[in-house]
């Protein structure tokens, strides 16, 4: 009897599966045109994306890189105005960032333009360009955040400066950028008369980065901050 019930149950499951398959087949037949259109659109979008990358973005990025060469050369020579605006024969960072905004080189031009304006003392424009720069590279990204901290500090926005210094320090802990920007954060805390937080970041340098350049005189910074923290 139990065996017979199992056979019936198995037959019922088979009927259910067949019924589901029939419904699926029916749905496909009834909506064949719609499904074909959807699949076609997906294929077109994929092909368009790869075509856009290969035939537009790749050449654009190559052009931008070629333009960046002279601008970077002017930057390294401290010819900041030519680096920003070009020399009449090649573009500067400002135009590269605008004309090639979708490319990696155009993005990098924002970083260089921000540094140029920071050096020139135009801190508002420095903030604008540095804020437009996006990077997945931990070191370059940290340097950009640190430069934003410098620009905000020069503009008198101590709170934002500290935030960017800490972001730069902790984005990717390493022996170079972390103690560098922790020290800047500590100095800025002291400017804000926040000596307790200054002590914390100084001690972080001492305990976690004892071999860094910033750690050489860190005991003096700690002693000074503790003396003022009364």
The percentage helix is: over 70%
CATH superfamily of the largest domain: Tetratricopeptide repeat domain
Please report the number of helical segments: 11
CATH topology of the largest domain: Serine Threonine Protein Phosphatase 5, Tetratricopeptide repeat
Structural class: mainly alpha
How far do the termini sit from each other? 91 Å
Q: What is the oligomer described by this structure? A: single chain
Strand residues, percent: under 5%
| Mean pLDDT over the full residue set | 84
Shape: flat
Rg, nearest Å: 30 Å
CATH architecture assignment name of the largest domain:
Alpha Horseshoe
Element-by-element helix/strand order: HHHHHHHHHHH
The stretches of 5 or more residues where confidence is low (pLDDT under 50) are 1-8, 47-53
Number of domains: 2
The level-1 CATH class of the largest domain:
Mainly Alpha
